[in-house]
């Protein structure tokens, strides 16, 4: 079984490959995502949402990862086709049995909303 850090590393590797379907392997069936631009429940709806997001993602540059037991906080620059500059993002995930159960993203959505 993956550690929480390994789970979230696999999550962001899927982002870099723009492979939303591969994320099913690291998301719990009842995963809940919360962020400035929405709330999504369940693995199917999360993967569908990520299909849309990954269509504009050009890169994810992880700056730092903090791990505290089952909680993983990843600080990264999100590069997209919708913004000129990267969007500094913090992702806080709670991982149970090698799968992310909750994910909270924290970022300033204004650059994405301006498009």
Describe the structure.
The protein has one domain (4-113): Roll (Nuclear Transport Factor 2, Chain: A). It is 26% helix and 46% strand. It has helices at residues 4-17, 43-54, 110-113, and strands at residues 27-35, 38-41, 57-68, 71-80, 87-96, 99-106. The protein is globular, with a radius of gyration of 13 Å. The model has no long low-confidence stretch (mean pLDDT 94). It holds the Pfam family SnoaL_2. Residues 9-99 form the SnoaL-like domain. It comes from Actinomycetospora rhizophila. This is Nuclear transport factor 2 family protein.
Mean pLDDT: 94
Unreliable residue stretches: none
Approximate strand percentage? over 45%
Main sheet properties: 6 strands, mixed
Tell me the CATH topology.
Answer: Nuclear Transport Factor 2, Chain: A
What is the approximate shape?
Answer: globular
What is the H/E string? HEEHEEEEH
What is the tally of helical segments? 3
Spell out the blueprint of helices and strands.
Elements lengths: L3 H14 L9 E9 L2 E4 L1 H12 L2 E12 L2 E10 L6 E10 L2 E8 L3 H4 L2
Parallel strand pairs: 1-6
Antiparallel strand pairs: 1-2, 3-4, 4-5, 5-6
Which features would summarize this protein structure in a list?
115 residues; alpha+beta; Nuclear Transport Factor 2, Chain: A; 6-stranded mixed beta sheet; 3 helices; 46% strand
Overview in brief:
This is Nuclear transport factor 2 family protein. The protein has helices at 4-17, 43-54, 110-113; strands at 27-35, 38-41, 57-68, 71-80, 87-96, 99-106.
